[in-house]
Amino acid sequence: MSNELLYLNMARPKLQRTVPAGVATESEAADEELEAGTSTALARGLAVLRAFRQGEVYLGNAELAERTGIPNSTISRLTFTLQKLGYLHYIPSFGRYQLGSSVLDLGYGFLSNIRAIAAVRPLMTRLAAESGGVVSLAALDGQDMIYLEVARGVAAMTRNISVGLKIPVARTSIGWCCLWGMDKDERLRTMDALEAANSPAWPDLNRRIKRAWRQVDKDGFCINISEYATSINAVSVPFLTRMKRYHFAINCTAPSAILSKDALVDRWGPALRRMAELAEQQIYPLEGIAQESA
Question: In angstroms, what is the C-alpha Rg of the chain?
Answer without folding.
Answer: 20
